[in-house]
Specification:
CATH architecture: Beta Barrel
Helix content: 10-25%
Radius of gyration: 16 Å
Number of strands: 11
CATH superfamily: CheA-289, Domain 4
Strand content: 35-45%
Structural class: mainly beta
Number of helices: 2
CATH class: Mainly Beta
Mean pLDDT: 92
Order of helices and strands: EEEEEHEEEEEEH
């Protein structure tokens, strides 16, 4: 019989108006912000490509992918490099600009509850919002985000 996981190590990734929560295992590395190489013809949320670990990794603004304005990078900005879930993004990784250093948290069913106070469109790269203690982070749809990145990479 499979053992039930009691806790999941997760990261809270700061954005301008909220935070994302993702399992720690989805992240390859968190690096300091560096200006990416722009990609001609890409939408504004697709910031460009970033040299990382011998690859050219797509870099996106999560806020921009949600239709919000894209925040400027600051001295606190970081890049969170994600492992791809699927195979459509050629590099196998992609980066999201974070507005600060992600915070490691342990998440269990004791501290997490659904929060239906916000509804997200079907096209949004957000699955839902949850409540944990005094936080209401968003659960990103990483597969949807990868599809958006792959579509734009192919179009450019």
């Amino acid at each position: 019989m499979a053992e039930r996981v009691a806790e999941i190590y997760s990261l809270l990734i700061p954005l301008v108006d909220g935070r994302l929560i993702i399992p720690r295992s989805c992240v390859a590395e968190v690096v300091g912000f560096q200006a990416p190489s722009e990609m001609a013809g890409a939408p504004p949320w697709y910031i460009g490509t970033l040299p990382w670990s011998g690859r050219h990794v797509p870099l996106v603004s999560f806020e921009g992918a949600c239709g919000q304005s894209i925040p400027p990078a600051s001295g606190r900005s970081r890049i969170v490099v994600f492992h791809c879930i699927g195979t459509r993004v050629e590099a196998g990784f992609f980066g999201i600009v974070s507005q600060g250093f992600p915070q490691l948290v342990r998440v269990s069913s004791d501290v997490v509850r659904p929060d239906n106070s916000r509804v997200f469109s079907e096209r949004s790269p957000i699955i839902c919002q949850i409540r944990m203690v005094n936080e209401t982070p968003w659960v990103p749809d990483l597969e949807r985000l990868e599809d958006l990145i792959a579509d734009e990479t192919r179009a450019a």
